[in-house]
Amino acid sequence: MSRKPDPTHLLALARPASLDRGSRISADDMLAMTTTEAPEELTCRPSRQRRPLVTALRFTAVATAVAVATTVLVRSTDSEVAPSPPTLARAVLLAAADRIETANPATGRYWHATGQSFAVGAWGQSPVGKEPEMIRYRVACTHETWMARSERDASWLVVTAQSGEPLTRVDEAAWRRQGAYRLGACEGPAVPSVGGALPAPPFATRLDDKHNPEVSYPQVGATHVTTEEVMSLPTDPAKLEEVLQAWNRRGGYRSTEESLFSQATTILSQLPTTPKLRAALYRVLANLQSVENTGTIKDPLGRVGAGIELSGSGRQIIIDQTSGGLLAVQERSPDGTGELTAWTALTTSGWTDARPALPKTQL
Amino acid sequence: MPNPHERFTALYNTYQARVYGYAASRAGHQLAEEVVSETFLVAWRRLDSIPDHAQLPWLFRVARNILRDNYRQTSRHESLQAELRTWTNEAATDAGEHATERVAALRALATLSDADKEILTLTTWHGLSVVEAAEVLGCTKAAFFVRMHRARRRLQAAIHAGETSTSPEPVIVPGRKFR
Fold first, then answer.
1. With an 8 Å Cβ cutoff, are B17 and A21 in contact?
2. CA dist A346 to A88, A269, A302, A324, A328, Å?
3. What is the ipTM of this complex?
């Protein structure tokens, strides 16, 4: 009896030879494009001075006289006619902006936020060289963030409670075979995540580790920024959008509606802001073509608010229509089941002059 | 230590074809050239932060971010689907060994989600180890195994659906949504 061949083996056989064609641009041509820039030193923060990427690409097309010009032209003259913004979502966001703008503008030493988060994940442990048996789990976490206004003060994530369990009986059986270790992590969206071998809560971890820039905060999208930069963001929506796009360009990326949505929700949910900035962020979101009002819904803690979703992304925010405050950020599975795979609900947020009360255990 | 220009030239000459192949497998040949340029512009800017032991995963990850952030999902998807049709036709007219199996695998691949296409081709077409592929996707090795396992099952199901279908066109596996 013949065995069915492994599907990945068939796929390997089908690898197109043209994948090895390579770029027609030589190393010298690439270097010619880069001569106006020096390579960046490895620092905590990338330089703000950048040549716009599109300029460099136009140079590529001219300098090398290859087919690149066609794609550059297609990209720079977007011929798609955008549909009208969905009035309902726009109206909800503009109303939230108007409400939150009138909140108390006083600031303080720390932006202090508390919240709860949930995420579904997978993990497995095995001896070296052996494929681990996977355990799907759910983790829940209660956290506080203390973002210092001044860089002279330390910023902290404090995990006050944490729990985790295998998702199904099959997962539980595998987990017991592997020693029933503690499952725990804070992996919700729009909150600094921690995972791995964590101590029992409560514990605190620094968010402003300059020696470890890849994990330090604040971070907006793919870009590391300073609290001062966040605090000095313009409150005019058009100018604010320009700065957010410039932050994307710092990393060499072009802005999309998805990246703007992500940047705005990150700032709204975890970073120090004034009411005017929060209002401007809602107004930036209101101008996105892909935002949809999903109606009045309950957040993961049962609080009622207006659901605003970035169409097709599975990402959603829930806004308190009375205060205009952000209640929660949640993500649904992109696999079509619509399953809620991760969420973060904010319970309090605001400025304080109090110092963080830190637990004894600090990572 | 070689100067930055020499280091960049060595990096480019060693890996540009690999990055091109990755970009072509993610968005077709039409966009691949531009993605290679954008990737190596980022590489130049970040020359000092490219880890010596993981240069290829680092470059793939940059290319992946560029594809995700700079191009509309629909244009990327359409470009790749057109390329997959070309590759399938080439395989069908090729009298070489395993032509039927290759056509079936490419047709099945065309029906899968963007995420499944990516995870399957990272290891089978681009020769990345599990650790490297997980690094490119920004997930743990454990999460990679879960996703790979599920993608393989869907590929198997799609190949099977193609074998039993009387339609010459790929059968769309329901329930998948593109991000």
1. yes
2. 24, 7, 12, 13, 6
3. 0.88
